[in-house]
Amino acid sequence: MAEGMFRCLAHGDGSWHFSNRSRPRYTLSPTFMPGWEKSLWWWGCEGACCKKGCATCFHDKHSVRPELLWDWKPEGDGCDALPAASFDQLRVAFCDKFAGRSILFVGDSIQGQFFSSFAHQVGYVDSKVGANSCCKMMLGGGAHECDVTATLCSKAKGRGVRVRYLRNAYLYLEKVTNAAGRHLGNPNCDWIDEARPVSEGGVDRIVLASGMHVRAGVEAIGLRLNSTFRQLAALSDTTAAGAPSAPPLASRVIYRSIHSPMYNCTMLPDPMTRSQADAYQQHMAQQVQADRYNWSKFARMEEIAKASLAPWQVPYLDVYRASSMRPGGYNLLRPRGSRSAVVDCGHYCLPGPLDDWSRLLLIALMHNGP
Q: What pTM was estimated for this model as a whole?
């Protein structure tokens, strides 16, 4: 049954269905997100709107943003093996299984948003923000945090789940490489110490995503991922003498695919059907001259990443198809002093469509490894 689940999560097919289920309120504060009140780009809301929860951003306070009225339903090979449990049932089971354990999220800014979504949906209790060298330049400058640790599920000693997000868009493990490539907007936080086996002070699970950044050509993502996974495997092979052997990467690491941002997102129907999404993807692939952020290359990057990671047999969480059908939910911001809207079609307003990824991750975590 578990094999069927992971085949379903890996191919990522499905469709969006109307729903009126409630969404969590997000704890937006200087403690959880330094500079959240100054951010114009990364988290989709600002000022008093954030304090009320993003579900009411730029809409009547008694209404819910229409982007939140849809749920993702996985369909296709293996999807009949997915648990029929409600999100609350999955959340309770997760909190019980992972009590006293730890999960590390590493990736780009979208991974940071995914971390925030997961933390709030599972049950955010408390958090603290790091001040390591990789993100000192960013603290207080915007809500795109780069080192956040949160406690989920319970305040009771030994019952909470510790989750941490470190921003490193290229997933480099070598500290020298990270230091050389560190700059404003891509702090390349070091995560090699957290990536070690639990017996050496590391974490129980790692959720990785190398997403929005194209460097040294599209094909390079395969080389980067293989390099990272070889180093992760080496860390497991060098477990301290006498310590319990580390579990294989396939039972410790989960990889999330790149998502599908889209130009002119406010001009498209939301959600789109599969045929509409496919047609738009073909159209975007032809817009090479106007492709400022290389988004037309993301579908190819997704193919390369999936093929590169297949030999490692780690669970693959494909969200490309789901996000390609949702042009709604991206950041619609009003800069202070301006009546005009600014649209960021690469990052989401939270809560939003990427909240549905959290259910898929819960399923993967619950059925992968001890």
A: 0.90
